[in-house]
Design goal:
It is a single chain. With 259 residues, this protein is an alpha+beta fold. It contains five helices and eight strands; from the N terminus they run αββαβββαβαββα. Strands 2-3-4-5-6-1-7-8 form an eight-stranded mixed sheet, covered by helices on one side.
Length: 259
């Protein structure tokens, strides 16, 4: 979605004026978008690698213990065909021999039940504390959207309402906040937990909002480009006739009508 970041932030604030109220520990914001057109470059000291589940590599290289469990969980779901599709993976960023960032993506499953069959969610994002505020998350987000994007596909991003750095990054990317919700654990079991979108608007209405916003911004950009050109063209077409001056002494010049 080609949106001006400042305009996106103003729209998010206007749509949810009470977003800055004190947040509860179980308060999440649900963002969605289709493209990331803002520039996001990776500094030369980093390298990027895409991971996908396989029997030989159930997790990315150089993972820590806790991260291995997270990726192994996704690999198991992938091979048990518990995802709505087969597009599961992660963008990993390395600094030398260290994994310093990863952003995963998955199709719909019980943790994100509000997705459609074609949509993907971008989540389980982590950055090494020593490498934060270097644009790694925004770069990974853009890589995922470029790799997996296709006409009409929405990407979802669920973030804790208290996580201001992640909120700033996703809004800078041009994603739109479409609702708020919470995290529930059936029987208190974390593995069975899911994010519940409390926005009760029909899915068709939420999906229609994104193309409408994209069309509105495209029209604004086109107007901004066309208006100066049209003004210059009209100015070039207007020819001012020099005024006919009467001589200081003598009769005024006679006007002749051409037949």
């Amino acid at each position: 979605m080609n949106l001006n970041p400042s305009r996106t932030s103003r729209r998010n604030e206007a749509s949810h004026p009470d977003r800055d109220r004190p947040t509860s520990p179980n308060h999440y914001l649900f963002y969605s978008g289709q493209r990331v057109d803002i520039g996001a470059e990776l500094a030369p000291m980093y390298r990027c690698q895409t991971w996908g589940p396989s029997l030989r590599h159930p997790w990315p290289g150089l993972c820590g213990g806790k991260a291995k469990l997270r990726f192994l969980f996704r690999s198991i779901l992938h091979y048990l065909h518990l995802f709505a599709g087969r597009e599961c993976g992660a963008v990993c960023i390395y600094f030398g021999a260290r994994l310093v960032h990863y952003s995963g993506f998955t199709p719909r499953y019980w943790r994100f039940p509000f997705l459609s069959d074609e949509e993907l969610q971008i989540g389980d994002t982590w950055t090494d504390p020593e490498h934060r505020r270097k644009g790694l998350a925004l770069f990974a987000l853009k890589q995922i959207v470029q790799m997996k994007g296709k006409p009409g596909r929405n990407f979802w991003y669920v973030v804790d309402a208290a996580n201001q750095p992640s909120i700033s990054a996703i809004e800078k990317a041009g994603f739109i906040m479409l609702g708020e919700g919470s995290w529930i654990r059936p029987f208190g079991i974390k593995a069975l937990g899911s994010y519940v979108l409390n926005d009760r608007a029909p899915r068709e209405a939420r999906s229609a909002e994104l193309p409408a916003l994209e069309k509105q911004d495209a029209t604004s950009r086109m107007t901004a480009r066309v208006t100066p050109v049209a003004t210059a063209a009209l100015s070039a077409c207007v020819v001012e006739r020099p005024p006919v001056e009467a001589p200081e002494n003598g009769p005024r010049p006679e006007r002749r009508h051409e037949s």
